[in-house]
Amino acid sequence: MQPLNQPRWILILTVVVAFGFITTIIIKVSNVLSESSYSERTDEQTKVTIITSDEVVDQSWGSLAYIGQLKIEEQFPIEVTLYSEINTEALQLETVERALEDGAKVIIGHGREFSDVFTELAPTHSNVNFVTIHGHAIHENQSVYSFNQGVIEAKAGIAAALITVTNKVGLIDAIDAREEQPQFEAALYQSNPEIAFYYKVVDSWDDDAKAGEYMKEMIDEGVDVIYARGNGFNRAVIEYGRQNQIYMIGYLEDQSYMASEWILTSVMNDVSQMYVAIMKDYFSEEGIQHGVKLLTEEDGVYQLAPFGPMFTKDDLQFIDNEANNRD
Q1: Contact 159/146 with Cβ under 8 angstroms?
Q2: Which CATH number is 240's domain given?
Q3: Are residues 159 and 185 located together in one domain of the fold?
Q4: Is residue 128 part of a domain?
Q5: At 18, is the pLDDT very low, low, confident or very high (cuts 50, 70, 90)?
């Protein structure tokens, strides 16, 4: 019986192997066809332009545009051109027109300051997506990608209210966003109505001298907790705060490495992830949608850094409870 069954098993094995081989070929052919179809679309719309008013140097606002460029070049089949130090209206207009002449299909302004020039040019270039990081959008081919980090800023505010001894807390901002982003200040008052809030605007992401001047003024007024919501100037502010033994809240990255004993926490933003979100939408079936899109923690654009050693376990539980009660 054994010899008679052997041909049957050989036949079955041959069929299985052949089926597997044919299936593999089908899958590979399908992938090739899909890639070809994808390439046909992206070959027509691959050029992306990023424009920033800042320098592209370490720790600068402009450097985040460059990191965004690197991320999307790695993840998407696109050709990216980055223009930096485009800091006047004339330069903005000239640069955007150059990008249009070069055939850019997506033009990204790294900041709200590009909203006006995009509003001016968008109506006459309906086949181009004009996108700003923050700002405003009016036309159908104009979009804004932004985020509301209010939840984590409120939590940072609760922490500041818990730590302050003088009941004086300050915020040094790069741009005037007091009305747009009130959660930190609101959390202070809700946690302790006796707190006095000090607010200063540098009007720059990296003006160390002006930020330092404001910090000195606050310290002279008795402020003992300062949230530095800047970028380039944060390093100078934190160093000054460390020397004067002032508690601080960092920004953009976990800045505890600069002064671990004096950093309460950091409101961390990964602005470069906004570029990934923009390009994901561009290559989706729906494409980039008109208007404002608010990104969330799930998009990887913000989170709160771990709290510092000045907080006890009871303090951390209190902060969590207070934050949850506000949700």
Answers
A1: no
A2: 3.40.50.2300
A3: yes
A4: yes
A5: low
Q: H or E stretch including 285? A: none
51 — phi, psi (to 5°)?
A: -125, 130
- Are 174 and 259 found together in one domain? yes
Query: What's the pLDDT at 324?
Result: 86
Residues 264-319 have pLDDT tens digits of 999 998 999 999 999 999 999 999 999 999 998 889 999 999 999 999 999 999 99
Tokens coding 139: 């036309």
Q: Give buried/exposed letters for 233-272 (b at 16+ CB in 10 A, else e).
A: bbbbbbebbbeeebbbbbbbbbbbebbeebbbbbbbbbbb
Q: Please calculate the CA angle 168-169-174 and round it to the nearest 5 degrees.
A: 145
Find where tokens 């505010």 sit.
157
Other beta carbons within 10 Å of 88: 10
Does residue 306 form part of some domain? no
197 and 58, same structural domain? no
Query: Tokens in use for 107?
Result: 């033009």
- Which amino acid type is present at position 37? S
Quote the distance between the C-alpha of residue 95 and its chain's center: 23
Give the tokens for residue 210.
Answer: 């002006």
What distance in Å separates the CA atoms of residue 264 and residue 271, rounded to the nearest whole number? 22
Q: Where are the beta strands (DSSP E) in 142-188?
A: 142-147, 168-173
CA angle, residues 320, 222, 230, in degrees to nearest 5: 60
Is 51 inside any structural domain? yes
